[in-house]
């Protein structure tokens, strides 16, 4: 099994909690001796996605077309997204999660 830690748009998030999460994911895989890559051109079995940027959505779509497993991490909840900027309350329901598929 080889994991792709997708780093699309990493420059936008590398100093944020998402950037730290990506570092922690890599470290966890290293500690468990699980092979991983950050190069989407390499072969992989599972892709880890951490953002909802369009390139991440495209990566999920491409991975599913190749019958790869996709793990999408949520770093915000509907509740903590609400009232964060003008218009956020209109978008907040999109972040509601009723279940998690494993």
UniProtKB/TrEMBL annotation:
The keyword Ribonucleoprotein does not apply. Coiled coil: none annotated. Keywords: Transferase. Pfam families: Glyco_transf_4. InterPro entries: Glyco_trans_4-like_N. It comes from Gracilibacillus boraciitolerans JCM 21714. Signal peptide: none annotated. GO terms for molecular function: transferase activity. This is Glycosyltransferase. Residues 40-79 form the Glycosyltransferase subfamily 4-like N-terminal domain.
């Amino acid at each position: 099994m080889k994991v792709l830690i997708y780093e699309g748009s990493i420059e936008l998030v590398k100093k944020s909690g998402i950037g730290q999460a990506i570092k922690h994911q890599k470290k966890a895989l290293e500690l468990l001796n699980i092979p991983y890559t950050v190069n989407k051109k390499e072969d992989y079995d599972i892709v880890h996605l951490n953002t909802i940027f369009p390139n991440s959505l495209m990566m999920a779509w491409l991975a599913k077309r190749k019958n790869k497993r996709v793990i999408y991490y949520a770093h915000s909840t509907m509740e903590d997204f609400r009232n964060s900027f003008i218009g956020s309350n209109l978008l907040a329901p999109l972040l509601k999660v009723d279940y998690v598929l494993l």
